[in-house]
Amino acid sequence: MMMPARLHPARWLVGATVALLALPLANAQAQGALSAQGFGYPNGGLSTRALGTAGATSEFDLLSARNPSALTGLGATVLSVQGEPEWRSLRVGELTERSVLQRTPLVAAGLRLNRVGLMISSSTLLDRSFATESPGSTIIDGNVVPTTDRLESRGSMSELRVSAGWQWKSLGLGVAAVGVTGEHDVVRARSFADTLAFGNVRDSARLGFQGLGAAFGVNWRPAPDLLIGASYLIGGGLDALRNDVSVASASVPSRIGLGVLYEAGATVVAASLEQIAWSGMNGLGGEAAVAQDATNWSVGVEFPVGAFRRVPILWRAGYAQRDLPFLLRDLPVTERGFHGGVGIPLAGEFAVLDFALRSAQRRVSGDEAQETGIGFSAALTIRP
Amino acid sequence: MPERFSLLRSISRWSNTFSTRAQSAAALLLLTGTVVFTSACTEELEGGGACPALCPQEQAPFEDTVLDAIALDTTLGPYPLLGLSPFVMLASRGDTIETHLVVRFDSLRTTFFPNDSTGSRPITDIDSTVLSLRVDSLNSVINGPFVIELYDVDTTPTDTSAATVRSLFRPDRKLSELAVPGALTTDSLRIPVPNAFLAQRIADSARVRLGLRIVSESSVSLRLQAFIGGAADPRLSFDPLTDTLYDPIDVVPNTRLEGAVDDAPLERSYTVYALTVRGSEPAPANTITIGGWPARRAWFRFNVPARIIDSSTVVRAELLLTQRPSSGTDRGDSITVLPLVNVTTTAVTDLYLASALSADGRLLGLGTQRFVPQDSGQRAINIVNVVRSWASLDSTISRVLSLRLADEGASSAELLFYDLSAPAELRPRLRITYLPRTEFALP
Fold first, then answer.
1. ipTM, 2 dp
2. Chain A residue whose CA is closest to B13
3. Which residues of A touch B9 (CB under 8 A)?
4. Other CB atoms closer than 10 Å to residue B108's CB: what's the count?
5. What total number of domains does chain A contain?
6. Residue B115 belongs to a domain
């Protein structure tokens, strides 16, 4: 293997990783957006690499929080962290509202012990960080009193995974223990223009979440160039906690996924289909958090064009369509997006910088509201 | 499946022709640019323009209610405690209010330093003796010419007895007078004091206690400065010699009370004080009073349901009082009422003392309000900040509010309100608007 001169990974990759890890961990999105209903937006647990193919290769991607059997391909220790800002534009009639969101949706570290690949990862299950401020009014003593209403939430539900994958005969097998955790810090404020007569409202609350699940995965190579993968996540109990006391209970959404990948030389073509039982979360929130089951699919391709430091640069493209989990006043919200990406080997096998760009269109059937999200994802994966 | 990184290893034909150093620099630049770009995106979370259409979490409505939340009301007085009011009232309001003023100089200077000597010399020849008083002419009531009479009110026995001191305002005790033709043109009064009177007191190492009263055909009320920063303000000034080259000697009011050893606050109380000759008429039945002479305070103890105080956010709280017209002095003028917040624990059972120790409501953001004594009808006093503070108040501190005149001790105007014994529609009540604490963190 060629090592680039004067570019030893131990010197600066660790520093760069620390810098990426220092990205804001809080996810943020503006409620009042199509993608931010209920408990928030599902990031999908995709690595930047899989995101470049719209998630089509996710059943075979060891960094994505999908199929633990992908860990059978783990060659050595790996560490990955990604940052993911999104520029969102919401259009409702004449109104256009823009926001910028910052995410760190996935951090993962893995190693190989004998024939078993192990991975611990944290990925965002649902973002719920937003701040809305809107003019309102209330009737006090028979008079209409103008107010400014603000609702602010910071936090997310995260999925922690401890996964293992190994090879058994022609099958790759995987299992993962899944824990769902997270916090929402919510502030409800209401202020009056007449500050002499009225005191303002500023209530705050912190909610915690804890849940459990287990994931299983398998992949099978029926032909030298063909891979088939499947995974299943069994959702256990999911509790919303206040001061460590459960205030609402539901289930971690179960998920079943299926993927197929065809290798044509160095080019990979993949497709993925999944169904997530988000409705298992019903009961955790109120009427504003009614979830529907989602059926998502995606197709994508990865191919090498050019090289950097004698290692090929991988280009990716894909298309995905999925249902967002939470209804907007009984109406389902759908998302479809075109994805693209590139993986640049900065230091041979020791460091790869992946980029992904996606353009997502979110709609509500029968409603004129339309949302566009331009997401940029960057991940540094190192193998120290 | 094989790790995709193996793909990179297997394909070596994509080697490029750039130098290793250039590639290293490019890699570093790329990585740095990525980190900077990704982390430099400043979050802009603010949204809400599409609300309420896309904001399914609606704001909970406010509750608005009027409560019979006053557990006890009463009128306390007299206030202020002697020595605690920066101003004092000297008044002659016809057949209503009449007050006198007493200023004590119990310790007099007996020596001075002449210009032609290095040592001190006893004061024997006195000239130009005056009692100087500062007047708040803006807040004084002067409806005609008046005379201020000065009396010697020194007496040996029971010198704290108001009746005894009042009896000393008689002709044989009169020292001098100052005639004022009408409206004051200056902010001070200089009342002549007989030089011989003071010289004799100095010679005898005796004390001087002066009494003042107003004699007028008209209604007159002077608001005089009594204390500034805890120090008495009036001055007894005289020249220690008839020679005009000397600066006058100023004597600051002071007193000593028998039995009050090292009790400066008590001694200060009798340094400069008003003496009531004729006070306000007693308030009618079913009434609580603010002001009057001597001044009184309205005192309210609240009993608000815990579901409102502890489990809601109060956004408006108004003490509703029904005013009844006053026939007292200055009834057509607007006067300012200042709320006071209780700071004593339940260990203080003397309500008068508890009110005296109360904190200025402005410290809690309570505003003052102006009322006209002769008016009637429902009045609302905004007390939202103090009601909101009750949620965090120690349980040993009563939820109490007092109301007093801002000019307490220097004004005789009074406000009358119906109390809890009045018919239900006239009683004091509490109007509260609050937001019940509901679940809002869960969507």
1. 0.74
2. A310
3. 1, 349
4. 20
5. 1
6. yes
